[in-house]
Design goal:
Rossmann fold; six-stranded parallel beta sheet; alpha/beta; binds uridine-5'-diphosphate-glucuronic acid; about 450 residues
Length: about 450
Amino acid sequence: MTVIGCGYLGAVHAAAMATLGHDVVGLDTDESRIALLVQGRTPFYEPGLDELLAESLATGRLRFTTSYAEAAEHGEVHFLCVGTPQRPDSNAADLTAVFAAVGSLAPLLERPCLVVGKSTVPVGTAEVLREQLAATAPAGSDVRLVWNPEFLREGFAVRDTLEPDRLVVGADDPAHAEELAAVYAPILERGTPWLVVDLATAQLVKSAANAFLATKISFINAMAELCEATGADVVALADAIGHDARIGRRFLGAGLGFGGGCLPKDLRGFMARAEELEVPEALAFLSDVDDINLRRRRHAVDVAVELLDGDPAGKHVAVLGAAFKPDSDDIRDSPALDVADALHDLGAHVVVHDPRALDNARRTRPELTYADDPLDAVRGAHVVLHLTEWADYRALDPVELAGLVAVPRALDARNSLDAPRWLAAGWDLRALGRPRLSDQVRA
Ligand code: UGA
């Protein structure tokens, strides 16, 4: 099989398919990315991927190329794993890479084969690709297309690929879905739910799943706003409603909100597609979900300014976390970096630490100052902002940190530090959606 597009999704998928016993060629048009992968090096940080890649390369069942001719010659199954970012000029998804991949591959498909779309696309895209394949592949209608959305999370990508909670395939013909079932046989044998649906439903499943997750996060963040207005505690509230199995506690983590290369752009792309389909009202509520999410970043900046006695100019702000979430070096649409940038724009001297994302952050936000050690970031700080909840930060000793800063004031924007420990160490600790923790303790 081939995996076309070796980014976060494709690199993991290619290595995972090789460990299932398949003979895999990974293709990417980015030569530098392929140059790394052939040496068993990953172009990004994903726990477990280095090991999986090394294991797969050692079997001889995984290789990489930039050549579509080689991929077309090799593949009986072609997985499409290219990116679909947000367009710079609108909310819609940019499908350039998807159409370019199929445009390059189709004219080279001379034998019957299965093309499996995994990229996140607006509903209706697969149907257009199916026509494009039928019209331009020499093998014509012997090139089958199915849609197999991907639900992996960065940070857990290897596990989510090899042990998914479900596999969904959209197919015109159940026989095409059976071909894909054969590919995933070792996973399906473990009893993984296998859902065969039509093409449109398969594409919608992915958009709906991400929209629901985003809505859940924004719901609890809207509750955080109410908690701030009333003195209530959003963490206790989430615990209490989360015990209801119909609601569930997962993804009720209130704080700085969601970022990354998926939830924000998928939410917007979904709204843009609903407009094209002339049912904009069906997803109008997602615009509030997006607004609530972005309001959290502005609110974190406001709290930071308050902790700086209203005057951020010239003050040293220590930022813990640059990645959009822990266990990732991905800084796409990172809430942490947005907050850091906003404070820099207000004149603060912002020093950022992250265990993995510093190189990416340095490249895209050169205006900020970076520290390779969290203790260096906080030394002399007037406020410490905990913006990405790496386990490394929970392991820091608040007593030691209090001895390094200029003023022991902090904002836990992810509600994950051990508040009693920080308070006991003399910190003035604020959180989002929670009463002033320091006041509570003093009372
Ligand atoms: C998300 C989905 O969870 C995956 O199922 C999906 O496959 C993927 O997008 C994708 O479309 O490719 P991911 O972007 O890796 O995965 O990250 P999540 O774990 O979903 O977190 C997204 C953001 O939400 C992060 O910024 C995180 O900090 C934030 N979040 C998450 C919260 O603010 N609160 C929570 O309770 C959970």
